[in-house]
Amino acid sequence: MKNVTLSNGVEMPILGFGVYQVRDLEECERVVSEALEVGYRSIDTAQAYGNEEAVGNAVKKSGLPREEFFLTTKVWILNAGYEKAKASIEESLRLLQTDYIDLLLIHQPFNDYYGTYRAMEEYYKAGKLKAIGVSNFYPDRFIDIAEFSEITPMVNQVETHVFNQQQKPQEIMKKYGTQIESWGPFAEGKNDFFTNETLQAVGQPYGKTPAQVALRYLIQRDVVVIPKTVTKERMIQNFDVFDFELSKKDMEKIAELDQKESLFFNHTDPETVEMFVNYVK
User: Fold this and answer.
1) CA 108, 113, 118: angle at the middle one, nearest 5?
2) Range of the domain at 170
3) What residues does the record give for site: Lowers pKa of active site Tyr (predicted)?
4) Angle in degrees, CA 103, 106, 111, rounded to 5
5) Pairing relationship of beta strands 179-183 and 3-5 according to DSSP bridges
């Protein structure tokens, strides 16, 4: 497994496993256990997913040493603010059944995320968080929190896939020593992702699927990826992306797919902001 080194020296697997929308606890525990059997050691969850407990159960039952895992979770909007964030971190530690979290992110750039981040900085200094960062922070808000926090975010997890490649935001993150991480590396199947002609054509000589090509493309750009699936066969397939390398021409072809806009929602759109605000009310 290839790792990336975060700004504080922590090693993070470049390929992990996501559990977004796997809300049934039994199913979530099953798929995480299967992912661990395949070889995944980085698991990405969140308070809002409602499955931290299942992730913790799977990790504990694996019998593997805690230090082999890289666990990520995220503070939800309802838990924003210094005191609420601290309480939510304690709850995440309890549900995950661990003494520390490898990476904690602010899930959305709304509500009192500065208070949340101060709590995270405190837990980081206490050793209960090995790394801290943000999620869905576009360049404007990312620069804001990077400039006015004591500890610069080590990771920014944003929508990143072949149709929204985040090239310029990634350069801005590099300026601050922040690692970009992709959510939705398969664009959740939008734009006929899995039958895309360019991805099929690029993958054919390597004997690789569009999904494998898309993951490899991001990995070669030093983007951390956390594909999600509930099928073991696809877990294996998504894990099998380190035995080939895309050529410069391949990379250029895929770069042309970039539409430079979200396929889901724009965090700077007032309607999007109102949607997230409604979670608090």
Assistant:
1) 135
2) 3-280
3) 74
4) 165
5) unpaired
Number of neighbours of residue 125 by Cβ within 10 angstroms: 11
Measured CA to CA, the distance from residue 22 to residue 14 in angstroms comes to 22
Q: What is the DSSP letter of 178?
A: P
The helix or strand, by DSSP H or E, that contains position 21, with its residue range, turns out to be none
Q: Is 107 annotated as a binding residue?
A: yes
Residue 274 CB neighbours (<10 A): 9
In 3-state terms, what secondary structure has residue 152? coil
Each residue of 29-47: pLDDT tens digit?
Answer: 999 999 999 999 999 999 9
User: Catalytic residue numbers?
Assistant: 49
Of 183, 252, 241, 187, give the one whose Cα is nearest residue 212: 241
Residues 98, 14, 141: CA angle, nearest 5 degrees? 85
In the block, residue with structure tokens 């009192």 = 112
**What is the CATH classification number for the domain harbouring 269?**
3.20.20.100
Helices (H), the chain: 25-38, 52-62, 82-96, 113-125, 139-147, 167-175, 197-203, 210-220, 232-239, 248-255, 270-280
Determine which of 28-32, 48-52, 103-107, 261-265 has the lowest per-residue pLDDT on average.
261-265
Residue entry with tokens 């049934």: 24
CA-based torsion, 157, 153, 124, 6: positive or negative: positive
- The tokens 């569009």 sit on which residue? 210
Domain count, the chain: 1
